[in-house]
Amino acid sequence: MPFWPQPYESTTSHWQQTNRGPTSLWDHGRDAALPAEADYVIVGAGVTGASLAYHLTRPGATAEGKRVVVLDAKDVGSGASGRNGGHVSPRSFMYLSELWAPLEHGGGGLSMEQSVEAWFFELDNLEYIERLVKDEGLDVDFWRGERYEVFTSEERVAENRAAYAKFTTAIAASRFAGRKLPWTMVDDPAKAKELSRNDRALALNIGPAGSWHPHRGVTALLRLALGSTTSKCDFFSWCPVQAFARAGDGWALDCGERGTIRAKHVILATNAYTRHLFPGDTTGLKDHLVPTLAQAGRVVPPASFAGPRALDHTYAVELGPYLIQTPHAGLVLGPYIDVLEKGRIHSRAELFYQDDDSKVTDGVRRWLQSYCGDDFTGWGQEGPGEGLVHHWSGILAISLDAQPLVGPVPDHPGLWLAAGYNGHGMAMIVNLTRSLASHLKTGEWDAYMPRHYAITKERLDRAQKHADKLT
Length: 471
Ligand SMILES: Cc1cc2nc3c(=O)[nH]c(=O)nc-3n(C[C@H](O)[C@H](O)[C@H](O)COP(=O)(O)OP(=O)(O)OC[C@H]3O[C@@H](n4cnc5c(N)ncnc54)[C@H](O)[C@@H]3O)c2cc1C
Hints:
This is FAD dependent oxidoreductase domain-containing protein. By secondary structure, this protein is of the alpha/beta class. It has helices spanning 14-17, 47-56, 94-100, 112-136, 154-173, 189-196, 214-226, 285-288, 337-342, 348-351, 362-375, 429-442, 457-464; strands spanning 37-43, 67-71, 143-151, 184-186, 203-211, 232-236, 243-247, 250-254, 260-268, 289-300, 314-317, 321-325, 331-335, 387-399, 405-408, 415-419. It has 13 helices and 16 strands.
């Protein structure tokens, strides 16, 4: 039975609710006839598809003088990109521990040099988005500031201390020596509580952060692609690709009642839904990307956390949320997966291998309702219309080895993929698709992008041996 159209109606996120004006791309190309062929077809109009379309259609890029078609099974930003937490933030040095940990312990199994490279790649992504937003004059609520990474257990405080020492040394010994480590550690509980306004804080890291309105961000990038003066780019919403097959020296995409489109180069930007395009796959590709249910909400703070007392940092809290302050609508926050597991709010089976974003759960709703009042000092009483006002879900893709899959799909000439960001795609995708566009032009891996993102049989095999880590 085909996966599309989905038999349910997805929840609507805050971002999707607040991007409905005349410059949004709702229903764009929904009733237009699909062309029979194009030079490049991008499947998926989330941030991966939109950003790749943008980079492919710049003057001098590979699609100059050529036709690019973007397809989405639903609307622009209808997947995780339009439903996330809005953070565009590189992770702190604590992320290096995750990358470096062996696969059998749930890590990325990378060398220290590879880990440091991936870490700096995220850092550069923020710089790049900031520049792009400014240069293109995008109206996407982009904010640049700092993030508090808050630790609430002695165990994590100790790990953080050790990580800081270890990774400062590792970076100094890597080819990135000389680059500044843009994080400071506050290892004093009283100071940590005061800064974070969180009574449970024992220590915190302060480092670079960004946020944006992700649905407007995706829309703006796609609009720039559609307006390209050097390429012809079209977008067809509500056009699910049901299957693909080799056709001549390219691919034929079966889009059901919308017809068939052929292209020499097809790029899958289908993230958590990629597995449905590889039903009989035995290479490990299909199983490498695990669709995972995530939920977020919008909280309107009382006056105690508004105006001059509004939060002026984004947050990542141990056994708490990822959280941003929007310009006008209060806070957007969601629980990390381990909050749900350790708090016995959801079992792994309820979170992993799920691709239905029509449901929100009572357990997460209760958590979102109580988090700010429980943890922020002096939050106080919420009045009518304050507190949790909206709650939605989305499907992200966990990659079995904690790293995205990017580039040519082995044994499928002309088929490319970029997916699997472990709930952290905004922190790497715009940079990553710039490199992918370069690869499409030159035929060579862009040396700037971590080489271990490449899709290899060896990598898929290795990760499959640890596929049971999510069950
Ligand atoms: C609740 C939540 C909170 C998150 N918070 C953050 C955060 O704060 N910061 C951060 O960096 N990341 C966050 N993420 C992760 C981030 O949203 C993703 O990494 C990112 O959006 C992935 O973008 P994408 O374009 O690859 O995938 P998606 O946005 O999921 O886009 C894939 C698109 O492909 C389309 N598609 C799939 N299959 C087909 C097909 N067969 N035919 C046609 N179209 C198809 C889908 O309709 C969809 O639009 C969060 C995710 C969720 C769900």
